[in-house]
């Protein structure tokens, strides 16, 4: 049984420690997608992070595998190693060039969404004026499908996400988003979006971030509660886990260079506050998650789908090889 964490964040710095990845692995996780950049990160920073992460993975072949295929993930699990790939949060690092998508795939990116909270030239963000997918955005969806990258709609505005799901020829996921019905935050998604995702064959992965779970001290029980709601709306085959843990490292500054305004990306009007930062589930949540999923009525087989089987299926249908 593969345990699949669809999205985690190390510091956006080439020297970031992989100790948090080791903690996830020790807790039973076999695979995670590491974020390597978002719309607020200039290309120079994104490429520096990718280079640094790749070097760290290559330097520890006994512990980590940069996966290209599902077979790589399965082989890493058999050998007691942690499989990793990368994801992009937003299309701005693509520089409005669909050809950039395939290049990122060669570098290890296997998942991408198009807008980080705010509108851009490709799609609308969840904390901006409602807007659909642009003509360039439609070409980008095709490029993502062609490159064997999982199409993600986290952080994306409702209208754009629905249009992406209409256009995509492959399953679409929300790698870290929770049901709005349980926690009324603009980053969460409606039942309409949940059902549309399932209609593509995709998966909605529960985030372990406090704001999106509607609690101040998130736990495995909270994750299980949101997973059970998703299963009720869309079916057990369309639920996954993307803990969205943002690990920090003392002394390592990963602030985007240049004119960076946090209040633009995380607006106070949407409920963000520097005085009340979010908290996250601990990596050890994975040790008790199966039990908590059983507590909300799932069988062992259903819990296995939520904890990794469903996302493994999407990767098999999407990744090349």
Describe the 3D structure:
- The chain is an alpha/beta fold and 321 residues long.
- It is built from twelve helices and nine strands.
- The strands form two sheets. Strands 1, 2, 3, 4, 5, 6 and 7 form a seven-stranded parallel beta sheet that branches. Strands 8-9 form a two-stranded parallel ribbon.
- Helix 4 packs parallel to helix 5 (135-147) and helix 9 crosses helix 11.
- The mean pLDDT is 97.
Helical stretch tally? 12
Order of helices and strands: EHEHEHEHEHEHEHEHHEHHH
The biggest beta sheet reads: 7 strands, parallel
Rg, alpha carbons: 18 Å
Q: Any idea of the CATH class?
A: Alpha Beta
Give the quaternary arrangement of the chains. Answer: single chain
Shape: globular
Mean pLDDT score:
97
Q: Total number of β-strand segments?
A: 9
Weakly predicted, low-confidence segments: none
CATH topology: TIM Barrel
The termini sit apart by 20 Å
Helical residue percent band: 25-40%
> What count of domains describes the coordinates?
1
